[in-house]
Amino acid sequence: MKKTGSQILLECLKLEGVEKVFGYPGGAVINIYDDLFDSEIQHILNRHEQAAVHAADGYARATGKVGVVIATSGPGATNTVTGIATAYMDSIPMVIISGQVPTPLIGNDAFQEADMVGITRPCTKHNYLVQDIKDLPRMMKEAFYIARTGRPGPVLIDFPKDIQVASMKFSYPDSVNLRGYKPTVAGNIRQIEKAVKMILGTKKPVLYVGGGIALSNASEELLKLAEMAKIPVTTTLMAMSAFPQGHPLALGMLGMHGTYYANMAVTDCDLLIAVGARFDDRVTGRIDAFAKKAKVIHIDIDPTSIKKNVPVDLPIVGDIKNVLNTLIAKMHERDNEVTELKAATADWLAGVEDWKKTHPMTYRQSKTVIKPQYVIEKIRELTDDDAIIATEVGQHQMWTAQFFRFSQPRTFLTSGGLGTMGFGLPAALGAQVAFPDRQVVDISGDGSFQMNSQELATLVQYRLPVKIAILNNNFLGMVRQWQQLFFDKRYSQTCMELPIDFVKLAEAYGATGLSTDKPEEVESVIRKALDTPGPVIMEFRVDREENVMPMVPSGKGIHEMVLAS
Amino acid sequence: MKHTISVLVENEFGVLSRVSGLFSGRGFNIESLSVAPTLDPDTSRMTIVTRGDDRILEQINKQLNKLISTIKVVDFTGEDFVSRELALIKVSTEAETRAEVLRVVDIFRAKVVDVTARSYTVEITGAPAKVDALLELLRPMGIKEIVRSGPVVIGRGSKGVAG
Q1: Around Cβ B137, how many Cβ atoms within 10 Å?
Q2: 3-class DSSP state for residue B48?
Q3: How far is CA A548 from CA A45, A356, A450, A563, B62, in A?
Q4: What's the mean pLDDT in A266-284?
Q5: Residue B14 to residue A129, Cβ atoms within 8 A
Q6: Which pLDDT value is given to residue A565?
Q7: Which residue in chain A has the smallest CA separation from B70?
Q8: Most CB atoms closer than 10 Å: which of A27, A355, A428, A510?
Q9: What's the CA angle centered on A78, arms A158 and A94, to 5 degrees?
Q10: Cβ pair B13:A118 closer than 8 A
Q11: Which distant-in-sequence residues (6+ apart) come within 8 Å of B35 by Cβ?
């Protein structure tokens, strides 16, 4: 029996195990939506295509599955670009289906036409234009394979309307055959043996781990390695929930807003073991001052990440879970030397412990005004260990990374690489779609929240009980902080002068709104929100000019951080 | 330092823009680029001449390999290879320079492929340096137009890129 292009598309999604898709209909995808009407695939109607992509992204980050988005041609498709770029920078597996004008009209400046393959080429792992229905099953198969394997990433399929209505006999390929795409999964065994030797010979080792740990589901292996050799672990923003932050070996985040002890440990170490991290400029600060006493081992599945920003003494290309397992097994073969290693690094660990005691992560509490860090600590205290926390971008995001003390993998959803304001609310929505019974909280600022606040409608419509904590300082706080510190307090365009009534805003959408400016009410507001069914906005009117500290000024080494006064 | 790279790619929609976009997006330099299908009509071969230090070339190599459409990348720099470029040069000809142009063309084993009362069009094939040298000699006689293909390269003997 013949099937149409749009039926084949949905058939492929089912065969790939897709249960939920996020999207927004329009003229160029109307046939797909007509077939969705009868499909068992659940479609979530977001209120903006950018939010649909962030929602699919949050779904993917929380589950490890491929997120799927459908958007119409032209403006629908261009609206997805920020979401796609966000996923690309953080290596999130995703397939985006964009409608396209009929093939005979492509290039004619037709109504709602945009060159999506051209526009998304630099922000997708790969993309396709379906020019013949015969290619559709292969392209779908390849798209999912490319999205989820190797270094994951978004793949876009641009799907012209005439191909959606064309028909053919459907069969799905069993395997993909891509001559140019064969990711290295197993690490080179001789390189791994060299790594073991380097680790066993060190006195001051540090594990510097990034989002690759989360993407490879390697938290358990990381913990095993850290504990067996007693190596302290510093995590990038992308890996905060990939290592338990309450663990004695946890150093917290490093870099621009990293902890004193993480930055000092990296500066002073003699061996830096980078795992699934890419030496981003926000991590390294001044590059020639970064870990300059250390030999560097770099484990990553993407060869382009290795030696891109810093020289590396020992590169290992491979899937992190795989490489760590081999590394751990090889270490076990030399258990005696591992015991000696622990003796050799005792002084180092004691020194790191001293740094933790002398310069703990802290802030000045207040009885009269709500400190944003306090709200974050309280949310941590009152939510379950497996609660999923999303953030937007800015001060609240850094405070969450610094103070939340995550303990379980895939519980922290944040836009790290691109730094996309407006990411958190839809990402939280996507995570709640994946896990209807878990607590999901979006920690937000008043600026970021307003970049995708229309998603309140989606939350209410689908009864998704996401709790939103807005740390409202009536400022674009991070930019204000820079203006305070480096631009002589000239607060150009960072004061959000119009006070928004967030309680009324919540109520307008049929959600619940709570608000307070009193420190003693923070706990009761959070409790009430968690006990209230459905989505809730908690507005905390916080200390307006609180700063994120420590801070490494740009152009400085990470050991030259400015500490809280 | 100048590098000459051969890239085998899938001969498919948009592949040239993937490669050229990679260079422009990451700030790599392209001095010349030529592309055409190989014996296998599903595969195209590009020859790219670029410049950069070792670190940049390592990134160019890795980033090209990272493209899904890239099958193989070979940097010929430091290898023994044959490099040839084609140029077509339209030279103005006055009565007193016609003979001189023909002499130079003859010395370079180039060919005149089109003649009018006021111009010769000269075809030359050779290593880029030879093309440069011919241009130098023809320049005083008045070059009206020039088009160069950019070099294509192939390894000597068994050295090469299968496909």
Answers
A1: 15
A2: strand
A3: 36, 18, 21, 10, 37
A4: 96
A5: yes
A6: 65
A7: A180
A8: A428
A9: 55
A10: no
A11: B16, B44, B45, B46, B47
User: Helices A335-344 & A346-358, crossing angle to 10 degrees?
Assistant: 40
Tokens standing for A541? 């009117």
Percent of residues, chain B, with pLDDT higher than 70: 98
pLDDT value at residue B157: 83
Mean pLDDT of chain A: 97
Which residue of the set A240, A478, A496, A551 is catalytic?
A478
Active-site residue identified among A2, A111, A203, A504: A111
B41-71 burial by CB neighbour count: b if 16+ within 10 A, else e? eebbbbbbbbebeeebbbbbbbbbbbbbbbb
Annotated active-site residue A545? The verdict is no
Q: Which residue on chain B is closest to A131 by alpha carbon?
A: B13
Q: pLDDT tier at A317 (50, 70, 90 boundaries)?
A: very high
3-state secondary structure of A334: coil
CB-CB neighbors (< 8 A) of B9 in chain A? 180
d(CA A54, CA A43) in angstroms, rounded, equals 15
The answer to whether A303 touches A278, Cβ cutoff 8 Å, is no
**Does B25 sit within 8 Å of A178, measured CB to CB?**
no
Sign of CA dihedral A349, A355, A356, A357: positive
Residues A345 and A404: their CA atoms lie apart, in Å, by 29
Task: Give tens-digit pLDDT for A436-486.
Answer: 999 999 999 999 999 999 999 999 999 999 999 999 999 999 999 999 999
Q: What is the pLDDT of residue A228?
A: 95
- Res A189: pLDDT: 97
Above 90 in pLDDT, residue A153?
yes
pLDDT tops 60 at residue B163? no
- Asked if A515 and A529 touch (Cβ cutoff 8 Å), the reply is no
**Token pair for residue B44?**
């195209």
Measured CA to CA, the distance from residue B36 to residue B148 in angstroms comes to 15
Considering only CB atoms, which chain B residues are within 8 Å of A158? none
Nearest-CA distance from B41 to chain A in Å?
A: 15
Query: Which residues of chain B lie closer than 8 angstroms to A129, CB-CB?
Result: 13-14
CB atoms within 10 A of CB A275: 27
Closest CA to A42 of A436, A423, A511, A424: A436
Instruction: Indicate if the pLDDT at residue B158 is higher than 80.
Output: no
Among B61, B68, B73, pick the best mutation site for testing chain A contact (most A Cβ within 10 A): B68
Q: What is the ipTM, given to two decimal places?
A: 0.91
Sign for the pseudo-dihedral over CA of A274, A276, A279, A282: negative
* Section A169-194 average pLDDT: 96
pLDDT at B44 over 80: yes
Q: Looking at the predicted structure, is the pLDDT value of residue A90 above 70?
A: yes
Nearest residue of chain A to residue B61 (CA atoms): A304
Cβ contact A179–B71 (<8 Å): yes
pTM of the model: 0.96
Under an 8 A CB cutoff, do B21 and A122 touch? yes
Annotated active-site residue A112? The verdict is: yes
CB–CB of B68 and A146 under 8 A? yes
Which residue among the candidates A49, A221, A392, A455 is catalytic per the annotation?
Answer: A49
